[in-house]
Amino acid sequence: MQDHIQLDQKQINDDLLAGVLGMPKWWLPAVLFLTLVVLAGLGSFGYMMNKGLGVTGLNRPVMWGFFIVNFVFWIGISHAGIMISAILRLTQAEWRRPVTRAAEVMTVFSLMAALHTPLFHVGRPWREMWVFPYDFARGVWPNVRSPFVWDPSAVGTYLIASSLFVFIALIPDLAVVRDRAVNPLVKKIYGTMCLGWRGTPRQWKLQAVAGILLSALVLPVFVSVHSIVSWDFAVLIGVEGWHSTIFAPYFIIGAIHSGVSAVAMLMALSVWLWGLDKYLRPDHFDAIARLLIVVATTWFFFFFLEWVFALYTLEGVEISLRELQVFQWPYAMLFLIFLATAFFIPVPMWMFRSVRRSAFWMFFTTVLVNVGMWLERFLIIIPGLMRRQPFTFDWGTYHPSIIEILIVAETFAFVALGMLLFSKFFPLIPLFDIKEGMVLRDEIKIGRRIVPATIRE
Amino acid sequence: MASGHAEHPGNPALVTAEDVTKDLLSKHEGTSNNFWRVASVFGILLILGIIGFVMRLSDGVSDTAVWGYYAAMFAFILTTAQSAPMVAIAPRIAKAHWRRPISRVAELWTVVGLFNLLLFIPMLWILPPLSDGRRSLWFYFDGGDVPSYSPHIWSTLAILGLVVIGVALLWMSALPDFAMVRDHAPDGWKKRWATRLARGWIGSSAQWNMQKHRLGILGAFYFMMLIFVHFLISVDFLITLVPGWVDSLFPITHAANGLQAGVATVMLTIWALYKFGGYKDYIEFDQIWALGKLLFALSLLWFWFWFSSFNIFWYGKKPEEQAIIELLMSGPYRWAFFGVFFFNFIFPMWTMIWNPLRRSTWGPPIIAASVLIGTFLDRIRLYVSAYSVDGIGNPAINKHVVVEIPETIYPSLADIFIMLGALGGMVFIFLMATRLIPIVNIWEQRELKLYEIHKTFHRTVVKVLGKPD
Hints:
heterodimer, A: mainly alpha, Formate dehydrogenase/DMSO reductase fold, 2 strands, B: mainly alpha, two-stranded antiparallel ribbon
């Protein structure tokens, strides 16, 4: 059964601008709490700058720890925006309308969070400028063969493209806020940001074309970003388990798995915190759950192939790494949690219609997926590095320090804070998209039933 | 509720479901002389193929190198005809209306799976057992419990499963159409055939529920089995024959090539139906356009998968990986590799971004033909080179690196006959199947008449499409 609520334009404006023109009671305490966590993380970073990387748990040969795990995780989450927005827009999936904005904004903030951690990880962040060819006058060029130069280029391009994507889709809504704002200064600010939008046919056409073009152009960027992140690992031949051709698509599908799950989490939070249940219906949860079943199963097949080909070689070093991941404490426990949370608990649950249509169960299962996907990156990176050296006296282990834990917590708080601040100034659900959906919605009578329908041009 | 129905913009003779049924049945029942002329040409090619096969068989099966082209043709049919049904399955699961006129075309290709099953039988003799010491999926060790014919056993079961599920899918989808042929066709063999296969279909609610439910399940199983077959064939009949080729992405690349070539196969078929088959009232720009977009996306996917593998091998600079690049890309089959690169990626990519070509009814079929040529070259590049590597079946030769890159093997007369026969056979069998089963899905077209209306919206006439539960 498909359930829709037909709403008029005034009600849509009132509902979706409530968070912008007013302030929910919980908003300020939540912002203050998240600010404190961010400050604690930044304080830890300052301390680490002062004392050096020795305050982290990194030691030889495990020189990549929580920071890089977290970097890969946030890059993964950032794939949600493009997956939901660009692909569903290009395929004209109607259910995308209420979820695109939140997904796109999450992309921007999670990319910023992802950029935090390698910056912290290098130990001397003031030398980050060396990835740019700033000193070409003296013939000093970055080493373009290094994966560490590919990363900033790809992530930077993606951040610019995603920000443009958010802005283009925001313009008509900014004009609505401009027209409804009472304070002249606020009116002026939104008036400037909406670039003189009046809603003429030409402006609508340009906005639609820009959205479609950006969708098409940003897709290759979206694919390249996580491919490049995966190649940070896969081009190496020194670490068994990393030099695998499947890494680029495997990382992408894993990113889509965690990113789309994060969007489902946001949908549930939007229903609970902003009361947007008239816009995010059980149908929307059902649609995203069906998408997740496909994505999770594909991801699991890639995971299976990665393992099959690791064992296919029958080489001792490869098998000992897999033994470490699966049979040795504490990785064995983490491996079981990873498999259960990323696949074996959520996917069977999504087979039930009642779970797919429930905000609570979708929130619960998608939180599990993201716990699992964070652990997946941890299990790729840490055990891979632990046995890197052939000499047993160089075999090390890794325990994250409190500094690393605080900095990781900071990235989560940063994304949440960014989303909350955004929601205070801009609507989290695109008004114009919802209104368009309401206009294009229709019904057809077939026999004794009335079936929802959509007008196609 | 929709009101103010506007005039139907299509053929005024096909407004009601009954009009559609009569029109499609009359098309199905009539067969032109041109059809038989075309079928005869492909039938002759099939006979040539049988002659080529007998010539090849006279050389025996111990030298795998001479069977490379045969293996390539088996893989080509797996990649095209047996992958084509996905064009019906995926949009049906997604409830996309545009698939309705072309879903049967895609499903009919499953019949060619029976032909490929026959082609597969000699492959079992060509592939040596695992006792030659090569790496395999089956963790075979000397003196272990794993049978050395594991690849033969599991691949046979998988391909058999794919063919059976495919035929079941086609039958399940055609059930209501058989009933329509039974009820409308004049007395004769077609009526008897349809009566037997309709299995007493009367179109009750319970029968419709059963049919839709089983279509969904069979479609999902066909997809999973197709991926599994691509996985087994690409590993057991290809990767394991080349020492040092460890490419965890390749089974997916093989399957993705299948989706790309499957879409191209359906696109070319519907173009032929549109142009020569008299189905212009059903196959419209919508179908060609939707498949064109899909083909464009799959061409980009081809490049991404190829580059993901190539980049790791090229960057790693391991000797065994350099040998793979030389064998498959830069060495004796570089002519085929560059052909694949052009026809599967460069040409589709640079033509599909050009509006006049993309938004035409003739542009996308040209691109589809390009993809099929590229796929044909790709199967030759992969299978002929792999089957010519020295040491297959010989335990004494290194199984961890290709020591000596083999020379190019060009097709002999027998190989040319085999290639023509395989292509002729797949088209001939498809053409024969269209005489038994309506090539446009009648019940899905009738259903569309329920879900589609045209109405006036402001100053224009728009199409309103209902969304099934």
